[in-house]
Design brief:
With 324 residues, the chain is an alpha+beta fold. The protein has three domains: 60 residues, Structural Genomics Hypothetical 15.5 Kd Protein In mrcA-pckA Intergenic Region, Chain A (Roll); 88 residues, Pseudouridine synthase (2-Layer Sandwich), CATH 3.30.2350.10; 141 residues, Pseudouridine synthase, CATH 3.30.2350. Helix content is 21%, strand content 27%.
Length: 324
């Protein structure tokens, strides 16, 4: 990985050096950075510091993530894939709920990437930076879906296509639409959700509103498709989300903050959503990437890829009582 050089701004003043590095690189662990600092691979104002060093406004932090993570090389594994489209440049997958997209701690050999490299070995060479281990561990991935989110996901077979597709998503030219079953009925049938999201300081596994100075802009547009009641008169709504940005946990976070959390979501729940989820026997968040519209390499017109909701999602809808 290339040398990183960061000047400390006011909002990060007072953070421990190891905390700051973790904040900048959440895919690594705090102990990893403590070891990196102790080995002299991190400098503050060209001097070595302890992990506990408190950063000051104007400090310059320089470091290289030269150590290897514990993930190791990708192991191709024969995991069934539901491919809905393929050409010489891309694959479009209907990802099932429960499948992790790329290797991570606790999921080394049971991910979509393991399946892809088994069935399509050329995908392993579709990386942004072949000297960056994190990049190498996520070949072909233009975007991601959470483990328990199902639906459309596009994969690049080569680096050129990967960059072409990723630029569309970054420039907000691709259209990504999701369906979710949410607890409660939104007070208005359609709206626009705008937040600045960042990691929750008390629980770094989840995201929350952190303000414009520290957070990343997150924009989602929603439309209520149908309001329902359970047999206990609990309110559930089927909502379509079209996202303009692709932040981690974006829809899940914003839906909760807007007052209609996704049922089955254990990380972003309320007492109401937990009660509904328990009553309906829901074990995972009811979120489905229903369609993706994107321009493929060599094409002149964007193409729409669409998949129906999976059986568990459909079964819940069938057990609800439609209200409009």
């Amino acid at each position: 990985m290339k040398l990183k050089k960061i000047k400390i701004e006011v909002e990060d003043t007072g953070l421990r050096l190891d905390q700051f590095l973790l904040q900048e690189n959440p895919d690594y662990s705090r102990s990893y950075f403590s070891d990196l600092i102790k080995k002299g691979s991190v400098a503050v104002n060209n001097e070595e510091r302890k992990p506990s060093y408190r950063l000051k406004t104007g400090d310059t932090v320089e470091y290289k993530l030269t150590e290897k993570t514990s993930l190791g090389p990708i192991k191709p594994v024969n995991i069934p894939l539901n491919i809905i489209f393929e050409d010489e440049n891309v694959l479009v997958v209907n990802k099932p709920a429960g499948l992790v997209v790329h290797p991570a701690v606790g999921h080394h050999n049971d991910t979509l990437v393991n399946a892809l490299t088994h069935s399509y070995p050329q995908v392993s060479k579709a990386v942004y930076d072949d000297e960056n281990e994190l990049s190498v561990s996520r070949p072909g991935l233009v975007h991601r879906l959470d483990k328990d989110t199902s639906g459309v996901l596009i994969v690049a077979k080569n680096t050129k296509s990967m960059i072409f597709l990723a630029n569309q998503i970054q420039d907000r030219k691709a259209k990504k639409v999701y369906l979710a079953l949410c607890a409660g009925w939104p007070p208005i049938s359609s709206g626009r959700l705008y937040n600045n999201l960042g990691r929750n300081l008390k629980n770094r596994k989840i995201y929350t509103e952190v303000g414009s100075e520290k957070g990343r802009e997150a924009i989602s547009n929603y439309q209520v498709k149908k309001n329902h009641l359970t047999s206990k008169n609990e309110r559930v709504s089927l909502i379509e989300f079209q996202i303009e940005t692709g932040r981690t946990h974006q829809i899940r976070t914003q839906a909760k903050m807007a007052g209609f959390p996704i049922i089955g979501d254990q990380a972003y729940s309320t007492k109401e959503s937990e009660a509904v989820s328990n009553h309906l026997g829901v074990k995972r968040q009811m979120l489905h990437a229903s369609s993706l519209t994107i321009l493929l390499p060599g094409a002149k017109i964007a193409q729409k890829f669409e998949v129906a909701v999976p059986s568990d999602f459909e079964q819940i809808i069938e057990n609800l009582i439609a209200q409009n």
